[in-house]
What we know:
The complex is a heterotrimer.
Chain A: E1 10-15, H1 19-28, E2 37-42, H2 50-58, E3 63-68, H3 79-97, E4 104-108, H4 114-131, H5 140-148
Parallel strand pairs in A: 1-2, 1-3, 3-4
Helix pairs in contact in A: 1-4
Chain B: E1 5-10, H1 22-32, E2 38-44, H2 50-63, E3 67-72, H3 75-88, E4 96-100, H4 102-106, H5 112-132, E5 139-142, E6 147-150, H6 154-165, E7 170-173, E8 188-189, E9 194-195, H7 196-209, E10 213-216, E11 219-227, E12 230-237, H8 252-256, E13 260-263, E14 271-274, E15 276-277, E16 289-290, H9 296-300, H10 305-309, E17 322-328, E18 330-333, E19 337-339, E20 356-358, H11 359-366, E21 387-394, H12 409-424, E22 427-432, H13 442-451, E23 455-458, E24 461-465, E25 477-483, E26 488-494, E27 496-501, E28 503-505, H14 509-516, E29 543-545, H15 555-575, E30 577-580, E31 585-587, E32 607-610, E33 615-618, H16 628-632, E34 638-640, H17 645-655
Chain C: E1 2-6, H1 17-27, E2 32-36, H2 48-51, H3 53-70, E3 82-85, H4 88-103, H5 105-116, E4 128-131, H6 132-148, E5 157-161, H7 183-190, E6 194-195, H8 209-212, H9 214-230, E7 235-238, H10 241-249, H11 251-258, E8 266-268, H12 269-276, H13 294-301, H14 328-336
Parallel strand pairs in C: 1-2, 1-3, 3-4, 5-6, 5-7, 7-8
Helix pairs in contact in C: 1-12, 3-4, 3-5, 4-5, 6-7, 9-11
Amino acid sequence: MTDNTFEPTIIGFTCNWCSYRASDLAGTARMKYAPNVRLIRLMCSGRLDPTFVLRALSEGADGVMITGCHPGECHYIEQNYKALRRFLLLRRVLQGLGIEPERVKLVWASAAEGARFASETTAFVEEIRKLGPLCWGKSSEQLSVISEQPDDLLLITDNSQKEVPA
Amino acid sequence: MTERIGVYVCHCGSNIAGTVDVVDVANWAAEKLGHQGVVIARDYKFMCSSPGQELIEKDIKELGLTRVVVAACSPHLHEKTFRTAAKNAGLNPYLVELASIREQVSWVHSDKAVATAKSKAVVSGAVSRVIENAPLEEIKVPINPNTLVVGGGIAGIQAALEIANAGFRVYLVEREPSIGGHMAQFDKTFPTLDCSACILTPRMVEAGTHPNITLLTWSEVVNVAGYVGNFNVTIKKKARFINEELCTGCGICQEKCPKKVVDDVYEAGLGYRKAVYTPFAQAVPNFPVMDKENCTYFIKGTCKACEKFCPTNAIDFNQQDELINIDVGNIVLATGYDLFDARRVSNYGYGRLPNVFTSIEFERLSNAAGPTSGNIVLRDGKTVPKSVGIIHCVGSRDRNFNNYCSVICCMQGLKFAHLVHERTGATVYNFYIDMRTAYKTYDEFYQRVLEEGTLFVRGKVAEVTDAARYSNEKGKLIIQTEDTLAGKQRRIPVDMVILSSGLQPRHDAKEVGKMFGISCSTDGWFTERHPKLDPVATMTEGVFIVGCAQGPKDIPSSVAQGAAASARVLDKILQKEVALEPIKATINKEMCSGCRICNGLCPFNAIAFLADDNVSEINPALCQGCGTCVAACPAGAISGMGFSDEQIIAQIDGLLLRNLEPA
Amino acid sequence: MNKYLLYPGCSMESSAKAYMESMNAIVEPLDLHFEEIDDWNCCGATEYLGINLIPAYSLIARNLALAAKQSPPVNGTGGTRTVVAPCSACYLNLAKADHYMQERPSLGAKVNEALAAGNLQYKAGTLDVRHLIDILVYDVGLEKIRDAVVRPLHGLKVAPYMGCMLPRPDYQHRWSDHEHPTELDDLLRALGADVIDYPLTTNCCGGHMTQIGPETAFELIRRLVADADERGAQMMVTVCPMCQMNVDAYQNEMNHFFGTDYHMPILFFTQLMGLAFGREPKELGIGMELVSARNALANIGVEEPVTQEPAAPKKKDEGLPMPRRWTRHEGRKEALK
C-alpha cells in the first residue's frame, strides 16, 4: 500500500436504464477501473436532488459523479435535461460555497457504453486526486487526526488502474 | 433499533469470492453494523440457488427478519429472485435490497484488499438504505380489451390480424389512403422472388373485411391520453371528400378527373395519378381520396367533373376533417420508415443525372403495375439499358449520413441485379462494402446471382458522373470507385445507376414518440425495452413497437415482430388487469403549497393541479416513477416510493461509512 | 449598409487584378462596405501549411488578430465580426486556422505565443471568415442582385466552376453541398446567364501542380476545359484566382501538350456581375484574360435585352419525371442538423 497517494472517495449517481446498465456492462466485460467510486442507483438522473450532492460532499465524499442517459435517449423522454439544468446551477452554488465546481461531474453513458463508463470514472478519480481532499466541515485538528490515523476502509490503493484501457 | 436485518454475501462461485474476501465482509457487517440492526450475516456459495433462497426464507421466519440485504450481483439480474423469496417467507418484497458487489466490485477491480473494502462500503450503504425502505404493494389496473394499431404496413397488418383473429377489437389507423405500406410498392420480394402484391393483397383484404378490425385510413393519431389498459386516443380522420357510404369504388371519378399529378408517394415520383385517386388498383379500402392541394375545384372553384360523372353521388366537396375518440388498452406502433433521401449524396448525382434511380424508383420501374408496365428503361421512357451499376450502402454505414447498416439493401441490390439481368440481359455491376446475406436462404440467393454473371466490385463508390474522360465513356454514367480487392481505382461506364438507399426513421418519429410517451435512439429509431430480451415492448407499459419503426428490417422480421407484439397484447388483454411497479411519486397534500413547479416537469402529464384545493395531485397509473418532480418540489411535499429522500440519504451516509458508530 | 473587413490576399493585387477591379465595381450598387485589414500579410497559400505547421498557422492568424483588433463590434453596432476573403485559398486558410486553433487548444496557445512577439493575440472563434460569394448569395441575397441587373446575360452559356478549396472541408456549414454546391449556379442564373450543368464544378484545377508536375496539372485542366466545351459552354466562370490562372494561363500549354485546340475563356463571377449591372468591360478588367472572352461576350453585346422570361420548355409527353432538385436551403438545413 502506498501511503502517500491520496485516494479520493467519490459517490456516483446512476440512472436505472442507461448508466447503471453501463456500469453493469463494464462489469460483465471485466473492464478494470478505479475503485474509488461507490454507486447509488436512481430511476432517472432527473431524480437527483442537488441536496444529495451536497450531503455526500459534506459527509466525506471528495467528489460526486452524476451519470445518465445521453440527451435524447432518456427513458423518461427528457428528464436528463432537467438533470443537466440542475447540474449547471449546482456548480454555480458550489462555487459560491467555495468548493471547486470540478468536484461534481456529469457523464452521459448509454447502456452500451461500459467502456465509456469505466474510462470516465478513472479519469474523474484522477481529476479529484489532483484537487486533493475536500475535508468539508472538518477543523484542522480533526484533519491532522485523520491524516495520522487513516481509516483503512477509506484508504484504497489503485493497483487495478494500470489495467484500465485507454 | 427496531429493524432486524439479515445480510447475505454471495460467493457467486469464484466470481465474487475470487476477488472479495466474502467471509470478512459478512463478519464485518455483523460486527460493525450490529447497532444498525444486523442480526445475522452469512456468506454462501450461490445465494440465487434454491438452497441459498431457502436460507434467507428460513432466517426470515426463524429470526423474524424485517429487512434483507443480499450482496451479490446487479439488481437487474436477481432483484426479482430475492424479492420473491422474501414474499414466500411472508416479508414484503420491497424490504429487500441488493448490494451489487459483482458487476461493481469483483469484476472491475483486481486488488483483493481494495475490493473487500469497497464491498464493505457497498453493503453498509445497502443496510442503511434498507432500514428506510417501506413496504409497497403493486398497483393493479384493469385492461380495456380494444387495441390500437398505428400504421397499416405489413407489420401493422400482421399485428392487427392476429389480435382480431383472437376475437378482440382492433383499430387500424393508416396515414395514407390505403393500407399496404412500402410492401405494396415492391415488385418482387427477396430471396424467393414472390410477387409482393400476390402475397400482400390477401392480407390487406382480410384486414379490410375483418369483423373485428375497424379500418381508419387517411387518418392520423393526434392525441394520446391515459395509460396502459386505459388509453384514450384521438384520431383525425382527414376529409376524403368522398362519401364512403355511397362510394362503390367504381373508379369513374379518377377516369374523368382532368388533373394529372406526379405521384410522390406510391409511384415514388416516377408516375402520375389524378387529383382524385386510389393509390393503386388493389387498394384497401377501395374508396378514392381527393387531393385538395391539386384539385382544380379547390384551386379555381370550378370543374367538379368527378361529381358530374359519379353514378352514386358519392362526391362531397363539403366534407370536413373529423375527430374520432376511442378507448383502447394497448397500442402497437408500426409506423415504418422513410427512405434515405439520395439527393443528399450529391456525388452520386441523384436528382441531377436523369439515369440515376433510387431503389424505390427501381421497384416501381420493374413493377408490372408501375409507370412503365414493368419495362426496365432509362428516364427517357424507352431505351433499355445495356449496363447497370447498383450501388450499395447509400446513406448507410457512412459517417456523413447514417452510421447504421440498413439491413435490407444488400439483398435488395441482389434482387435488382437478378431482375435487370433477367429482363434486359444487361451487364450488371454491384458495388458493395460488405455483402450481408444473413438469414435463411439469403446466401443461396447471392450464390445464384453470382452464377447468373452479375459482377461484384468491393469498394465504396466515390462518384457517379457524366463528365467523360475517355471515348468509351461518352454519353454514359461513369462510376468511379476503389476496387479494394484488386487494389486499384476503376472507372466503369454504365447506362443506368441504381442507388440501394438505406432506411431512415420517419421524419416525424420524434414527435410521434413523444405523443405515445416512448423515446428514440440517437439514430432516431424507437427504443425497445430490451434490445435482446424484450424487442417489441417499450419503456411505456402498453405501447409496443414493431417492424421498421424499431429499426431497419426485412419483411419476415417485420411480420415476426407484428405477431410477437400481438402475443404480448393478447397476454395483457387475457390477464384482464395489469400489475404496475409501485415505484411512483405521491404528493402529501398537507405540505403542497400549490406552486405548480412540478406540473410542467412531468413528461407523462401525470400531475394535475386541483384548483379548488390549490394542490397538485399525481395520477399513479400515469406516473412512470422517474422522480424528477420529487427532486424539484421546494416544499418536500412529493415523495418517491422506492427511492425516497430518506432512502437515498441513508445510502449516501452508509456508503461513506457514517453509520459505523451508534448515534 | 453591410460592413465587412476585407482580406484581399496577394493574388488580388497581381494576377487577379481583374477580380479586384470587378469586385470594387459591384460593391457600391449592392450597398456593401469593405474595410481592408491594415497591414495584412500573405496567408501562405497552399504550400506553407505542408512545410511547417506552427509558423504557417501563425502567419495566417496574424491576419485574424489584426482583423479582430481593427473593428470590434460595440454593443452590436459599429464594427463587424465578419472577414471577407475573395480568394478561395485565403478563405480556406483563414477558416482552417480559426477552426483548428479552436479545436486544438495547444495549437491555439502556440500560435498566440508567436503572435505575442508582435503584441498581438487572437481568440479563435471570434471572427466569421466568409468568402465573397457567400456574402453575395446569403447576405445580399439573390433578389437584390436580380434587381440590380440592367443588362441580363441572356444567351451567354456559362460553366459555373466553384473549385475545390471553397466548399471543402466546410467547417462552418456555409454551403448547400460539399460535392456539388449550387451557389454559383444560382447567382449566375440571377444575372440571366444560361448556366449549364457542370459536373466538374468542384474538381481541382491542379493548384500549384503547374509548377511541380505540369503533366498532372495539364490533365486536370484538360478535363475541366474539355467537359465545359463538350457541354457547349462559351466560357467558364470562377470564384478563385488560382482556378482562373490555371485554366487561363496554362490553357495554351495544355493544348500544346495534348494536341488539342480548346478556346475556353474563364472570367471571375464578379466580372459578369459588373457587366449585368451595366458597367463597362474596361472597368471590370475584361481584356486582361489570356484566352480572350471577346467572342463569348459578343453573345450578350449584340443581343437585344430580353425583358420577358423565356417560355417554359415544351412539355415532354414521353419519359418519366425527374426527382425534385436538392436545393441549397435543404443542404444547409441537413448540414446544421
